[in-house]
Design brief:
The protein is of the alpha+beta class. 16% of the residues lie in helices and 30% in strands.
Length: 447
């Protein structure tokens, strides 16, 4: 009997040891999986780290991800998720949407019953449609400037930024990867939203909700009330978008998939109720209709509008350099005074530049294939306050602005419409019209 009991005890001990051994082995195996080296974690440089974060970031920032991958073809995440960068002919994998809409409700537009900044904290407003530096094509957002505005940020002088209506903050990004510089998307319905750029301080509520912002972009679900302070800023960008409408002056909307909210841009003043709308318009330095500006100028078979270097994927720029706008070109009109023709180039001797046209002629809206080669002499853009004859300082509000071209010729561009949607273009730095007799090494642009 004792011998039988001893055998049972010994057998039990052996079984326990075996179970513990197997359990320990499984635990070690799991641990080894969890403790992979950092090099095995999917990442795209400093943009994102980990599959989930990279999926989320690249969902709303496809352009940045593509640019990174084109310069890092050896990256395994690029090879898996952005295979198109290795194809001779780029074909978009899917249409990019501007942001996810988690937490939103309903469809359609709403009325704005709060300004995006207290009226007394607004000195002047510039509408959509300007062309400045790397913003080669007309800009899809406007600008709000505070009193005594200075280009340099001083947190002590920041003013509150407000939500114009109830909504949900669905996405927050770091502008250019810079901490303390935010882009926020507020969905007021699932199809109607506002975008704020260069908010420099988030409200305590928002900052606490998102926690440590180590990634470039976060999809969020933060309810916001009418007039609620979402942050503080110096000057900031503001735009309104309606996914149920599309601008008709973009001949090929697919060219703008990289910023697909662009084609859904609507007037930045129209949705404010009175008297807020009138008081905002009174601070708007553009006095020509439409007061909210215009960004879509394309006319089939005419020079006017946006153009992109052939086979560079439209607005995306083809990943030819980090400065995607290098391949952009626009023949449009000044955003503050549309009586002035503007030639806006992404690459004028290596720089993105905008110029007026000497003589302000011919109108690009009248230039067609039958016109032949057009010669534009490029002069600086200047704003004159008509009542005083003085130049505008772009620091304070001014009424009666007139955009004019300067006297000094900075160069010449030759352009010829060779097909309804294709042009031949060449810029000559430092030349005058008399010094340029024809094309020497033109670039083909399309749309």
């Amino acid at each position: 009997m004792k011998k039988g009991i001893s055998s049972v005890i010994i057998l039990s001990i052996v079984l326990i040891i075996a179970v513990v051994g197997v359990t320990s082995y499984i635990k070690n195996q799991n641990t080894s999986v969890r403790e992979k080296s950092p090099s095995s974690v999917p990442q795209l440089g400093n943009l994102c780290s980990g599959s989930e974060e990279c999926d989320e970031y690249c969902y709303g920032n496809s352009l940045e991800c593509e640019e990174y991958c084109r310069g890092h073809p050896e990256n395994p995440t690029c090879q898996k998720r952005f295979a198109f960068v290795y194809e001779e002919e780029y074909k978009p994998l899917q249409k990019v949407t501007p942001q996810k809409t988690q937490g939103c409700t309903g469809r359609g537009t709403v009325s704005f019953t709060s300004p995006p900044r207290r009226l007394e904290d607004i000195e002047f407003i510039e509408p959509i449609g300007l062309m400045i530096g790397g913003h080669v094509t007309p800009i899809d957002h406007g600008y709000y400037y505070p009193p005594n505005w200075k280009p340099q940020d001083n947190p002590a002088e920041f003013k509150d930024v407000l939500s114009p209506a109830n909504g949900t903050i669905t996405n927050i990004q770091l502008v250019g990867g810079r901490q303390g510089d935010y882009r926020l998307v507020i969905h007021h319905t699932c199809t109607f939203y506002t975008i704020y750029i260069h908010v420099k301080e988030l409200s305590p509520k928002i900052a606490q909700t998102i926690g440590d912002f180590s990634s470039m972009s976060k999809n969020t679900n933060i309810p916001i009330s009418l007039g609620e302070v979402i942050g503080r800023a110096n000057s900031f960008d503001f735009s309104v978008h309606d996914d149920e409408t599309a601008l008709k002056g973009f001949i090929i909307p697919e060219h703008y998939d990289a910023e697909s909210w662009k084609i859904h841009t609507v007037d930045m003043f129209d949705y404010f109720v009175e008297p807020i709308k009138s008081r905002l318009l009174a601070k708007n330095v553009r006095e020509t209709e439409p007061r909210g500006g215009k960004i879509d100028y394309d006319v089939d078979g005419r020079l006017v509008g946006n153009w992109f270097v052939e086979s560079t994927n439209g607005y995306r720029g083809g990943g030819v350099s980090p400065d995607y706008w290098n391949t952009h070109l626009a023949f449009a009109y000044d955003g503050l005074d549309p009586s002035l023709i503007i030639v806006s180039m992404g690459n004028f001797s290596g720089q993105a530049k905008q110029f007026a046209v000497k003589g302000n002629f011919p109108n690009p809206a009248s230039v067609s294939m039958s016109t032949g080669i057009v010669n534009y002499e490029l002069v600086d853009v200047e704003y004159i306050i008509q009542e005083t004859g003085q130049y505008w300082n772009r620091i304070s509000y001014a009424k009666g602005l007139k955009a004019t071209g300067g006297e000094r010729v900075n160069g010449v561009v030759l352009v010829q419409l060779i097909e309804d949607r294709k042009i031949k273009f060449e810029a000559f730095l430092g030349k005058t019209a008399a010094e340029v007799t024809g094309f020497s090494n033109p670039t083909i642009y399309e749309r």
